[in-house]
Amino acid sequence: MRQIENGGVCFPKGFTAAGVKAGIKVSGNSDLALLYSKEPAKCFAVFTKNQVQAAPVLYDKEVLSGNNIISAVVINSGNANACTGDQGYADAVSMAELTERELSLRRYSVLVGSTGVIGRKLPMEKITAAIPELVKNLSTENSELFAKSICTTDTIIKTGSVSVQTSMGEIRFGGSCKGSGMIHPDMATMLAYITTDLRLPEDFLAEFKDLVNESFNAITVDGDMSTNDTCILLANGQSAVFLNDLSISERADVRSALFDLMKHLALQIVIDGEGATKKVEIEVCGARNKTEAMQVAKSIATSNLVKCAFFGEDPNWGRIVSSAGASGVVFPADKLSLYFEDVPVVKGGVPVEAALDKLAEIVKRKEYKISLDLGLGPAMASVFTSDLSYDYVKINAEYTT
Amino acid sequence: MRQIENGGVCFPKGFTAAGVKAGIKVSGNSDLALLYSKEPAKCFAVFTKNQVQAAPVLYDKEVLSGNNIISAVVINSGNANACTGDQGYADAVSMAELTERELSLRRYSVLVGSTGVIGRKLPMEKITAAIPELVKNLSTENSELFAKSICTTDTIIKTGSVSVQTSMGEIRFGGSCKGSGMIHPDMATMLAYITTDLRLPEDFLAEFKDLVNESFNAITVDGDMSTNDTCILLANGQSAVFLNDLSISERADVRSALFDLMKHLALQIVIDGEGATKKVEIEVCGARNKTEAMQVAKSIATSNLVKCAFFGEDPNWGRIVSSAGASGVVFPADKLSLYFEDVPVVKGGVPVEAALDKLAEIVKRKEYKISLDLGLGPAMASVFTSDLSYDYVKINAEYTT
What we know:
2 copies of one chain form a homodimer. By secondary structure, chain A is an alpha+beta fold. Chain A has 11 helices and 15 strands.
């Protein structure tokens, strides 16, 4: 994986951002964010599959079903605008319209995002009052302020940037994200915003979905999918480089740069997972196909017993094998092999004499990899997970509505 | 639900049981158990669907594929005999054969059960040495000793019994179970043994599976399905009452008595769940069909965020609605209604003004019910779950292999 810098959403040409304190958060922290591209950008978006979708998700999907040329995204933190009925939808529309008016943009050129408490009405007076100031604040210097303004319980801001030198010129990617699944009492959401000055073809959405599946959808902190999860890519073409004009190897390079940035952002979410003390990669290989590999990896990565063992620094392979068996994927137990890093613990379904001191050293690390080989085929998948600690329970139990 | 007494597996006519200290458990507690019916019994069994199945599960399935007339079950605790390869299977066969020999029974008339650490060889010398004494100990007085001998991390023994007066005479049910999902480091298993002196028809298995689905399969402590889960019903016909000779209303009465016993046993597992301080019923109604109702209920019942909120005594309905939405079942969010006991918190997908003092009182109870109405159809299902506490993490993290 290549080196990712901390440039953020304003790193690519033509993007500015802003953040202000609108007074939505009780803490008084910055809670209203704006991302803007002077040149309208092509938008690619992936939303939560939760049946209960927040108003901003419903609104964005509605806008994007009509056109995918977007100039800005306005995001509030501190309130998810979820389970808020018709009023909530009307409020999401208002947020977009107010921003469009303030930026002198056409209707349906601004998307909306929200993250925070579920089931409470948005304080629209506060948001309405803050939008003019928000627009005034737009600057190429505000990547970090933007990153901060979309945070809820995050303890670190999450930004990243990368550039690629192509035969047609330099292209840049920047991004920012917050949260992880549902990571706080009533707090909903993984939000991710990626920007690029590369020109992308209309059909890039399928490829973007693949990248999301292997980055933001390949991490788990608590297995809960929120009502607000959103990942948006804005491509404004300001680099004058068009993806389809590049050579095959250059395209692969560009794709992998974008993927590395997305993975970098996703891994920051795991590291910042509630109460997390470990980041563990669960790699499942030897599967019949990628779907099954992912299903087994996710079953292991979301098992409370497995995650408690990570926290307890216990090389408890029985739980890992059992979670794999409970995943719903059919496989013969006698073909399983399991490794902690390069140390084998199970081969052909039975335990091998493991180097216990080596194992004990591995599980004490802050980051390590577990590999499960199903012995059935060529497919593999990786999921990154955190451990389940006292602090996870504390954070999620002690907050009272 | 009718009153369940504490009679245990020896309550029905013709059953005896035993338990001894074979030295498998490090603690030195009783760890080898035997259940015996002098008159061979018809056996109905449901096993784990985990792809990784312990040797005793594989052996029992093999035996029952040949014949379902069983005289005894021999069970050890302290070692799951799982992930033990060919040697493990041979050990399960030996346990059965040794017991058959000692009881002068024909081959394939004894089933085997194991629960405990995964991936360790059974100490067969200890088991072999203990079986003669185990058989000598058989007595109608040993229901509690049997219950104790199958325990691992359980803090209470789990027994139950019920009798039904029919027009053809009295019939009895007894039972015992242990553990819950995978409830301890490396510890595998929910084991349940039900006895009855009722004569049952060959085709009772389908009905028994339904009862298991709504009792033992309708509880969750940590969502993990173990390699050893087993539920066995032995019907020896010693009451001389044949189910098919009873009237329709009597049959319904008998069926509900058996169900109440199984539910009683299952609920004791939830109450004894690791670190549990709450028992919460998640009832999902208004579903299109039972499968979907169960899927939504299980999604809520296994959500860490929901379970942390139970522990924190927080009436956090946003998490419940979000977990339902993430279950994979398709439903419109604007038809949802949610109740804590009889207090509505959501109607038509939007929050209602809830009586907060009433809600606060309900979530402080040790037992309460949450009802989610999908508003789509006539089907419903219930799942019983516990909360996620500091002690759960403690128990599952601090043990080191």
